[in-house]
Amino acid sequence: MNRSVVLHFCSSNRAFALGQHNAFVEGVSEKLFPSFDNIEEEADKHADEAYRRFGQMPGWEGGSDMADLAEAAFEQGLEKYENLMFVKG
Fold first, then answer.
1. Which of 3, 40, 48, 85 has fewest C-beta within 10 Å?
2. 75: domain range?
3. Which pTM was predicted?
């Protein structure tokens, strides 16, 4: 087989693969990465929601220190933040 034909064929495949790679990088950069722009706020919101949920549970009404409730909610927010940072890489 003629060497120039093999190189030409390979360069075509290479160009296709690079096009696919560039499309992937562009998609990740424009669609996925921006979803991690506000993870601190997302974690804070998660902690606030946990605080409200915990406050509505029967065991928390007057039976426990509110600092314990706040600490448990903070821990849930921190876990949310750590998980998002892990996914972000």
1. 3
2. 38-89
3. 0.62
